[in-house]
Write a structure and sequence with these properties.
Helices cover about 35% and strands about 20% of the residues. The chain has about 240 residues and is of the alpha+beta class.
């Protein structure tokens, strides 16, 4: 799993105690492999690595605290509930781990990366995965705050609410030639090919994963499925009150 792999890396690098140890085990071999990217002159790869590392540590006043503590940063286009639950538990037990979601986007001829820190959040409990209780709803809403949840309603619920239906034309935000026709709550028809919503999004964007609710729009509507889902959840809360 993603988070466990990062812990293994952090644990292995924690054994490096001195700058010379880092140069010897990792940095010198990297420079030797990619020597065209460095101006070695008469220096060996080891000497170049030592100079670069020591200059960096001196500028950041980190010589005395070199590798005294490890920090784990997970970066992905999206995280599943299990990864967030594990990371939240680790944070709650004083492990320095953060989760960031990056979403590339194109606006006209400009490219941007939207960076969103998911963890640590204001309240870690929002991300704990609990044992499912059939009698309680799968989502909760807090007034005047962003919607927090253990699980947001899926596509089946969006169909039931009438937010999306079979035959609707959907597009991926800021992507040309992305039109697809909704078949049912799981599949769309994209250029004659039957794909799941996520596979359609991945094929259009070229990404390995995508949060389809944040990127899919019904053609003619400027709100994403996630935004429409949030509005519906808030309206349901208002009806209850």
């Amino acid at each position: 799993a993603f988070e466990f792999q990062s812990i293994r890396y952090a644990a292995s690098y924690a054994k490096i105690k001195t700058p010379d140890d880092l140069v010897d085990k990792i940095f010198a071999s990297y420079i030797e492999k990619y020597k065209d990217e460095f101006e070695l002159g008469e220096l060996t790869a080891y000497e170049k690595a030592s100079r670069i590392l020591n200059d960096f540590l001196e500028k950041n006043n980190a010589l005395k605290t070199f590798n005294s503590k490890q920090r784990i940063i997970l970066i992905a286009s999206s995280f599943d509930k299990q990864t967030l639950s594990a990371a939240a538990w680790l944070i709650g037990n004083n492990v320095d781990i953060s989760c960031f979601e990056l979403s590339p986007m194109k606006i006209e001829d400009n490219y941007f990366i939207d960076i969103n820190r998911i963890l640590p959040p204001p309240a870690l409990e929002d991300f704990y995965v609990e044992v499912e209780d059939k009698k309680r709803p799968t989502y909760t809403v807090k007034r005047d705050t962003a919607i927090t949840r253990t699980a947001l309603p899926g596509m089946d619920k969006l169909f039931k609410w009438g937010i999306i239906k079979s035959g609707d034309v959907v597009v991926i935000k800021n992507r040309d030639n992305s039109e697809a026709i909704v078949i049912d709550s799981k599949y769309v028809d994209f250029k004659g090919e039957k794909l799941t919503f996520n596979k359609w999004g991945q094929k259009v964007t070229g990404w390995s994963s995508i949060r389809i609710y944040d990127w899919a729009l019904i053609k003619g509507n400027d709100k994403t499925l996630h935004e429409m889902r949030q509005e519906k959840m808030l309206s349901l809360e208002n009806e209850i009150e």
